[in-house]
Amino acid sequence: MKTVWITGASGGIGNAAARLFAQEGYQVAAGYCRGEERAQALCGELRREGFAAQAFGADLTQSAAVEETLRAIEARFGGVDVLVNNAGIAQQTLLTDVTDAQWRRMFAVNVDSAFYCCRAVIPHMVRQKSGRIINVSSVWGVRGASCEAPYSASKAALIGLTKALAKELGPSGICVNCVAPGVIDTPMNACFDDGTMRQLADETPLCRIGTPEEAARAILFFASPAADFVTGQVLCADGGFMV
Question: Which residues are catalytic?
């Protein structure tokens, strides 16, 4: 049985991804930082349904915590076959108002954690000559967003990491891809008022906001046999927002 490690599993997209991977027969390592109650509730529900799932709490901006978490996952489930780097934060601020600490925190959560997790799982994947790494970026990482320069920059960095690692790890049979969700109905977007959300829906060709499940299905695609010959790609699950 394969194991998936999903960071940020207490959030909307991570939660939905955990459910989908469990239904596909994966052992689910659900990572969280501050959302312990939500992560534990998710895993409890999955276990009651007969799936293998366990929550693992850690601050993934610390490399030692990442290594410790991986050891715990390996002790429970064995090596990680699929890594989903989904942990992330957002902030809407004029660039001139962004503090040094806010900038560093954005990159620590959105980029450093992905780097540490990739570095941790790659040796096992190389040894078994297979594996999938799926980074969760954003459409703002592709086109940028006003008043979200740190967020956009950090999500763009994930795209660069994806493309570089795809080349580096391809000879070892490891596929590295990226999902860039559009506007999704998650707690991260709770900062927007109803008028802003309606405007964003109007700007989307499908004329609505996406669901966490729709973004999660894009993530699952990259882990499926249908994506065996797909690597280094960015899939915008955005309802046509980037068209």
Answer: 151
